[in-house]
Amino acid sequence: MKQFKAILPLLLAVATFSACTKNEDKVFDSQPLVEWDAATYNARTSGYPFPLLTRVPQAYGRNVFTSATAYGAPADPALTRLYVAPAPATTTDTVTMRVNLVGPQMDHAQTFAVSVEPNFSTAVEGTHYMLIDRTVTIPAHSSFGYARWRVLNPGPLTPGGIPTVNVVFQLSGNSEVLASENYKYIGWGIAQ
């Protein structure tokens, strides 16, 4: 009887933590959406409906590292008029932004427009940046597409000039896939 009393709490604990669990298949059955990858991992900037990044993430699917991490990853490079991407970038002054398809993969390629949001942008195209890809294509049976833009060097900051200019990109949906209302903007601050 003493052994039974000693084993009873153990048996109750095992029974409690190994109870039957319902095996649910999670299926996305809502409207498919597209979003900027970096917008989903970084917090919105105060006063804006999007994050305003001043560093370029060197990997997709994570937030921006503003300092070296505890596990040895270095800080992401600052975005300045002298921006040079670390290796293995193919173009030294180009920033590549990933676009995510949220929902089932499509049987045919999907193309989405990329534009500059003029109400939030202070940077001038052709002076501070150049938008290389005005559309993003997500191939058939894929969940990702890429848009590129280039940082331009307008020269040293003039007296009284703005020390940081912002460029905000907007992602638009198409007839089949909408742009996510929460993540359709991504902002970049370029230090001069």
Automatic annotation (TrEMBL):
Keywords of the record: Signal
Leader sequence residues: 1-21
Organismal lineage: Bacteria, Pseudomonadati, Bacteroidota, Chitinophagia, Chitinophagales
Annotated Pfam families: DUF4843
This protein's name: DUF4843 domain-containing protein
Organism: Flaviaesturariibacter aridisoli
Source superkingdom: Bacteria
